[in-house]
């Protein structure tokens, strides 16, 4: 849980009392490769912190999976459009490898905001970070050519690119796997 505490401290200062509150509110969970943290149609009931491992967000569109994002160690995972209003999700979140996470329920997150001295500030800063990333990703999908989106993927996920199957990367940047192969070949040449 030390990585979780350290990550929260990147946003807000924590007293020893705050750290004890956090240790009580979060629960450890282990996932096998391929296991889902969330399946479309279910309500996202937790915010999740990845201690070890890798996950992907994806949706099913016309029978095809469309990868929307990846999260790795030291990052928070949540389908906020489901979590915040507590309504069914359109998104799936799946472990791409054996993964250890810490989860905090919606009710416990409200306690976090109330009991941790700068808890509400943490929530605001964290959601601002998510918002900016989502807007940048949407803008890129509409405006940037596939080769630039792939270069942005390599830049953003340089430390995990080798851990992600190529067909998920192709899906993430909005192209088919053969197109990604051609882009990669051009970049090598």
Automatic annotation (TrEMBL):
Full protein name: Crp/Fnr family transcriptional regulator
Annotated Gene3D superfamilies: Jelly Rolls
Source organism, top-level taxon: Bacteria
All copies of domain Cyclic nucleotide-binding, residue ranges: 20-110
Source organism per UniProt: Pedobacter panaciterrae
PROSITE patterns xrefs: CNMP_BINDING_3 (PS50042)
Pfam families (alphabetical): cNMP_binding
InterPro entries assigned to the protein according to its UniProt record, in alphabetical order: cNMP-bd_dom, cNMP-bd_dom_sf, RmlC-like_jellyroll
């Amino acid at each position: 849980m030390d990585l979780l505490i350290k990550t929260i401290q990147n946003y807000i200062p924590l007293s020893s009392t705050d750290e004890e509150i956090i240790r009580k509110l979060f629960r450890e969970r282990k996932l096998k490769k391929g296991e889902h943290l969330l399946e479309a149609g279910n309500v996202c009931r937790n915010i999740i912190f990845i201690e070890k491992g890798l996950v992907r967000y994806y949706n099913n569109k016309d029978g095809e999976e469309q990868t929307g994002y990846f999260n790795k160690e030291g990052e928070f995972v949540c389908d906020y459009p489901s979590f915040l209003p507590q309504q069914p999700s359109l998104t799936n979140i799946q472990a791409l490898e054996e993964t250890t996470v810490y989860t905090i329920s919606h009710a416990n997150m409200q306690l976090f905001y109330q009991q941790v001295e700068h808890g509400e500030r943490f929530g605001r800063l964290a959601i601002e970070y998510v918002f900016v990333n989502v807007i940048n990703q949407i803008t890129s999908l509409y405006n940037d050519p596939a080769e630039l989106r792939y270069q942005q993927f390599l830049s953003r996920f340089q430390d995990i690119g080798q851990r992600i199957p190529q067909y998920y990367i192709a899906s993430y940047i909005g192209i088919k796997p053969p197109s990604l192969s051609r882009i990669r070949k051009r970049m090598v040449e």
